[in-house]
Amino acid sequence: MYKLFILLFIFLLSKYSFSEILKLDQDLKSNLYVDTSTIIRKSDRVIITSIKDFNQIQYVDNVNFLSIKNSIEFDCKLGRHKILFSSLHSENMASNKPFGVDKTLSNWLKDKATSDAGKISEFACNKTVTSFSLMESCLESANETKKISPIILDKFSSILNVICHESLSQVVMTFNYSLTMLKADVKKENIDSFFVFGKNKFCTDPDSNQLLRSYDIEWKLLDKKGVFISSKIYRKEDCR
Fold first, then answer.
1. Does domain 21-128 have CATH number 2.40.128.710?
2. pLDDT tens digit sequence for 37-85
3. Quick check: 75 and 48 in contact, CB under 8 A?
4. Euclidean distance between CA atoms 199 and 201, whole angstroms
5. Which helix (H) or strand (E) holds 177?
6. Residue 186 CB: number of other CB atoms within 10 A?
7. What is the largest CA-CA distance in the chain?
8. How far apart are CA 56 and CA 59, in angstroms?
9. Which of 103, 116, 100, 106 is nearest to 60 (CA)?
């Protein structure tokens, strides 16, 4: 049964390793992304490229565009930023050649938590992602798992699905495991041993711990008739 953990997390970590373009936020008018492949860190300074996509054409000085691409330098210690260069694009995701480029360095500006720069700063300086981004990534993993479910791991167990939800502002990733036996036939000591194994894996394996630092992870065990057996929620605090 321990093989379940290894196979599942090899699969999920490949999904969790965010693609180079990561969505940080969205509203009714636009989506905000960062290109994680562009990150350059020097002491308290971070340079990163952002893309803001608009749902409708924007107009500035008789120029229409659908996305803005910025290279931004953040001073993480002083909580400020400046634009290194900016470009306008007529297609979303800045996917075509820019037709307006401004390479004039801006002055240092204060990061405001609710602004685009503030949200990018939170990611770039603190190496954290918003709950919105985490939910997006969790749902993507859940959808990918659904395409190939149930995943037969061995003669005792299979992965039914992955469920994503929020609890106390934290994204919870729930793995529903189905066993090929009835609840009455499952020994408590085997369940306890399995959950202890999970904690040790999360706390000692760097890749698994990376997942736990962003998500609360729930393992839920069901018998072959779908009857609930037991569950365990792992949190990053468990490894302190």
1. yes
2. 788 888 889 999 999 999 999 988 788 899 999 999 999 999 999 999 8
3. no
4. 5
5. strand 170-179
6. 15
7. 73
8. 10
9. 100
Which amino acid is present at 134? Answer: L
| Residue 145 in tokens | 């798992």
pTM above 0.85, yes or no: no
Q: Where are the domains of the chain?
A: 2-17+132-239, 21-128
Six-digit token pair at 131? Answer: 């709950």
Which residues does 166 contact at the CB level (< 8 Å), separation at least 6?
131, 135, 172
CATH architecture of 2-17+132-239: 2-Layer Sandwich (3.30)
- Sheet with 157-167, strands from edge to edge, namely 151-152, 157-167, 170-179, 216-222, 228-234
Residue 204's CB is within 10 A of a number of other CB atoms, namely 10
The answer, yes or no, to whether residue 24 has pLDDT greater than 80, is yes
Rounded Cα gap, residues 228 and 136, in angstroms: 27
- Bridge-based pairing of strands 157-167 and 170-179 is antiparallel
Contact 209, 239 (CB under 8 A): yes
CB-neighbour burial class of residue 223 (10 A; exposed 0-12, middle 13-18, buried 19+): middle
Taking the C-alpha atoms of residue 17 and residue 210, their distance in angstroms, rounded to an integer, is 10
Residue 207 tokens, joined: 């890749």
Matching fold, domains 2-17+132-239 and 21-128: no
